[in-house]
Sequence to fold (267 residues):
Amino acid sequence: MTEEPNEEELEDVEMPFWDHVKELGYRIKRIAIALIVAVLVMMIVPARPSDLWDALMGGLEYKPLIAAILDKMKEDMLPPDTILIGGTIEDPITLYFEISMVFALIIASPVIAYEIYAFIAPGLYSHEKRFLKRFVFGFTVMFIIGVVYSYYFIMPITFRILLLFTDIIGAEKIFSVRNFYNMIFLGLVSVGLFFTLPVFLVLAIKFGILDTDTLINYKRYIYVAVIAVTAILTPDPTPVTMLLLSMPFILLYELSIFLGKRVEPLE
Fold:
């Protein structure tokens, strides 16, 4: 049996090509194990510890963790009289696996980030390692803020407005379960990534690709472009969701200019 390399052996050592390939395989294997464990946790572990005992005793009250999360999302986003249907016979099980994978990626993301960092860190200087850590931290924080903001503000208002139009035309509140949850996750990820754009702006300023004067001179055009893009991305036909998404970005853009001046290289 081949002995796996430990962390001390992999750091600060210049290795030949095939050793890099071997280490890459080792890192990928650890990521795969973390993902598999996380998927099993989401799909099998009960939402309540007592559910597992009920299932072992032949009861039908068992509800896995992912099902409880989906129920919570429906409760937060939709009124009680809304009905979600399967659409096609395979939609519920497909959705079950897809969303389990999404949450598995979230749960395993610290392991994934660490393994990627551990693979590339030996080739970086100490100041580059510090900057990489700050970039990853900033990206993660802004992404999480965007996801939370989307979940508690943008998505509930979006669904409320869409349901308002359903009432206006006199239609029943019956929707596809897959479309509903896909819209939620698309909204969460889109807004989360949208909130990370200032991180990349500061990064571009740091390396001299952009300068703060350019951001200041073109910010009016950028604001118009952001409003246009958010109008296209948001499913809400009214300007409410668009403003909820574009206004925080404008504030973050101004913050990017402020931080950019602090990291901008001196001429």
